[in-house]
Amino acid sequence: MGAMGPTDEAELAERLVDGDRRALARALSRVEDGSEAVLAHLIARLHPRTGNAALVGITGSPGVGKSTLTSALVAVWRARGRSVAVLAIDPSSPFSGGALLGDRVRMGDHALDSGVFIRSMASRGHLGGLSWATPQALLVLDAAGFDVVILETVGVGQAEVEVAGVADTTVVTMAPGMGDAVQAAKAGILEVADVFAVNKADRDGADRAVRELQEMQKLGHGAWLAPILRTVAAQSKGVDELVDAITEHREWLVREGVLRERRLARARLQIREIALATLRARMGEVDEGGDLDQVADLVAQRQIDPYEGAARLVAIVER
Ligand SMILES: Nc1nc2c(ncn2[C@@H]2O[C@H](COP(=O)(O)OP(=O)(O)O)[C@@H](O)[C@H]2O)c(=O)[nH]1
Ligand SMILES: [Mg+2]
User: Which residue from 61, 66, 68 has its CB within 8 A of the most atoms of ligand 1, so it is best to mutate?
Assistant: First the structure.
């Protein structure tokens, strides 16, 4: 394989935007590999083509039925003529092997549909944690022209909050007897939920779960009161209503100017992440180049103090 230059990236970007699924898969691999310089060329070309997809986050504890629900959501959106991409962030835990296989089997229902694209990505950090690559991957899928991009993450607590940072609409999924509303409230999940799906509504305890969520909401909510829906993902029950709720939330986002705010916050975060990664990389180069050693020598000999040393290093990095 030859070295990747800006021309290769331009061609890859063009093919991807034209709907070439192999180009899309390659671009996502590049995102996962995380080679910053190569990625920068690709993202530069794709970014102007984004902003059209509805980014929907599906989150909740392991086993609540997120993957089943995602598959059912895909079916409903397809029936409504929408193309859908799914990005599933897999937990790094080896014990999840069975669940992942289950995901593949379910998602297999959509395998022959060119309006559906499914990709799993490993979460490099803590369980369910979004790797830094997630926003870039969403950007790539957006540029590929999908109407809806679903991000499925396994998570409790922090992961939900992270999903809310990258999605336009966050669906927090719960199931009877699995992590109650009080627990969710403590983890700050109620604030990030735009829509609640109480899944496995065929089981006992769904009414109680709904009531608990309603009680928690009475204690306070923002400008948007997150609707609480009952679903039986395994039987595709309540999924049409869930799509309606997600659509209504998006309409509200646009109408109230909240989508613009969210995008601004997201851009701010992304710029900072990339800037920090760039600085860290340059700092590494400077270390290897021997500049750090030289400055360190001066500090060790008491010729300059550590602050002056740091200032010199920053000056070198900025050059
Ligand atoms: N009874 C019932 N089981 C469900 C429902 N939805 C999903 N399941 C089952 O719950 C298990 C976990 O589902 P999965 O989608 O893998 O959950 P995830 O870990 O949140 O992605 C599977 O065995 C599903 O078949 C539902 O609505 N009712
Ligand atoms: Mg799953």
Answer: 68
Number of DSSP helices (H) and strands (E) in the chain, helices first = 14, 7
Residues 6+ apart with CB under 8 A from 256: 223
Provide the token pair at 272.
Answer: 């900072």
Q: How far apart are CA 181 and CA 73, in angstroms?
A: 24
Buried residues in 212-243 as b, exposed as e (16+ CB within 10 A): bbeebbeeeeeeeebbbbbbbbeebbbbbebb
CB 94: neighbour CB atoms within 10 A?
6
Q: Ligand 1 centre and the CA of 68: distance in Å?
A: 6
Q: Ligand 1 in contact with 198 (CB < 6 A)?
A: no
Q: How far is CA 270 from CA 55, 209, 263, in A?
A: 16, 36, 10
Q: Is 174 helix (H, G, I), strand (E, B) or coil?
A: strand
- Amino acid 265 reads A
Residue whose CA lies nearest to ligand 1 atom number 3: 200
**Ligand 1 atom closest to Cα of 68?**
15
Angle, CA of 133, 60 and 137, to the nearest 5°: 15
For 210, the token pair is 């709904």
Cβ burial, residue 157 (10 Å; 0-12/13-18/19+): middle
pLDDT along the chain (319 residues), means of 10: 66 95 92 76 94 94 91 96 90 40 54 84 53 83 97 72 81 82 71 93 94 87 93 97 98 96 88 83 85 94 97 89
Q: Which residue has the tokens 């691999």?
A: 29
Contact 165, 262 (CB under 8 A): no
Separation of alpha carbons 319 and 315, rounded Å: 6
C-beta atoms surrounding 51 within 10 Å: 11
